[in-house]
Amino acid sequence: MNKLTWGDSGLRNGADNLVLxxxxxxxxxxxxxxxLRFYESTRTVALGAYEDKDFAxxxxxxxxxxxxxxxxxxxxxxxxxxxxxxxxxxxxxxQHLNIERWLDIICMxxxxxxxxxxxxxxxxxxxxxxxANGKKLGSVYVGVLDNVLVANGTLFRSxxxxxxxxxxxxxKEKLTPAGIxxxxxxxxxxxxxxxxxxxxxxxxxxxxIALACNLPTITQIQxxxxxxxxxxxxxxxxxxxxxxxxxxxxISTSGGVLHGRIAFDTDLRISSxxxxxxVYIRPHNLFRKIESVLRGASExxxxxxxxxxxxxxxxxxxxxxxxxxxxxxxxxxxxxEIAVKLSIAPSxxxxxxxxxxxxxxxxxxxxxxxxxxLVPYCAKPAWCKWRHKDGxxxxxxxxxxxxxxxxxxxxxxxxxxxxxxxxxxxxxxxxKRGTKSYLGMCCNNFYIKREYAFRAANMPALLLDIxxxxxxxxxQEQSAYSGEFSAESSIDLGVAEKVIRLARRKPVL
Length: 509
Ligand code: SF4
Ligand code: SF4
Fold this sequence. Notes:
By secondary structure, this protein is an alpha/beta fold. It has helices at 14-31, 53-56, 59-64, 99-116, 161-167, 195-212, 286-294, 302-312, 322-342, 346-349, 363-369, 399-409, 420-432, 444-449, 451-457, 477-481, 493-500; strands at residues 4-12, 35-41, 44-47, 69-71, 79-81, 85-93, 122-125, 129-132, 135-145, 148-156, 218-220, 247-253, 256-264, 270-277, 281-282, 316-317, 352-355, 370-376, 413-417, 437-442, 461-465, 467-468, 489-490. The protein folds into two domains: 4-236, Bira Bifunctional Protein, Domain 2 (BirA Bifunctional Protein, domain 2), CATH 3.30.930; 351-500, no CATH class. The strands form six sheets. Strands 7-8-9-10-6-2-1-11 form an eight-stranded mixed β-sheet, with helices on both faces. A five-stranded mixed β-sheet has the order 17-21-20-18-19, sandwiched between helices. A hairpin with a 5-residue loop joins strand 13 and strand 14 (270-277).
């Protein structure tokens, strides 16, 4: 194997750095040359290679604040790049590809490089975060293109948490369930470094990466400025995709959140499908292949077509399986079923989140067996004396009262969830008393972040996404978790009533 060639391309904008990344891949591929490039980026939001922009970033904020959004060539979640970070891209010709193994190797190498240069208590938190003294110091993301392993990494020299929190819809839970700390307290930076110290640190990182990748030695070069070429993101930068007859949904997995959008033809065959996620997959175009192979498929043909595709191709899904993709697609079909059954628009049916981790129950069946309805306190008016209490006098002044009324008519027990801890208690109580399934309302951000709590309760559920003032968009999720969110979200009462009436519980007389 050739020695690792490394250099520094200095401060550029995110798009130019992406051009350099793609050029680096070509050189590594054609010359079998391992390359490591350090750089700094102007303020840029960098989506993971397979992410759905709508779910990953707050586009309006980025536009208003002139924050460009680019799409990395590596998987995982969105990162926010800005000056005063040590950013780097490694490209390596590899024969044996295994995403998990390479994430481990490279994260470990970064930790070793940091330790050698004097940083204490450094470790990595799988799959891809670098920590120092219990706080996040940076991240690593990997991808595989044309038998080239690509790794992007960042280490913080300063923090810009405010912009990061505004620009990113952080898709994975980063808070511990017990503690709610301010975001700033979860991050740390490298100590101040002189130019010589910075150079030494980069050299240590290069040496540690070379050692971890079995490269004999390192050599430093001057990085040649060659960003005049226009980078073409090709088929990975797909056009925005949403129209009237599109259903959308998601599924939480250990490897990240998978998103799907689907449209059907008149015979209920897939006319278009889009798969996304803050995940790691191999090959790079695997989602596009699945979408293409499923075009024209009926629901009953999905398993066969997907099984053939996975049999005929080499592939890797990091911490999720083809089964998760099948469950996601099945849920999109179920949303169509719900839309037809309830005579509601695809967009309304897409607001129904089907919580069924095993993927064994039908959505309409879950609704039919439900014996309880959970309502979030944030949907009650801020002035209502019941806002933070479990109950409602059905005074007729808000939609929650109507939902209470219909649910009680159906014989459902209704509970107002007052905060996250209360939700856990309510779910345990339902389970204990033999509830088979339940209905609920919450925003999709909450469900994605707290899916583990719903999973722990081990009961399927139909959850209606709520609209209006959402504590995630208002950046008040911490106060929301503790029950102190003061803005008002709203429920789509028309859809909620129809879903509640699907419950077949005998009314209590
Ligand atoms: S209907 Fe219930 S929740 Fe709504 S304002 Fe009246 S008491 Fe409060
Ligand atoms: S997380 Fe916020 S917006 Fe979502 S359901 Fe809870 S309080 Fe409401």
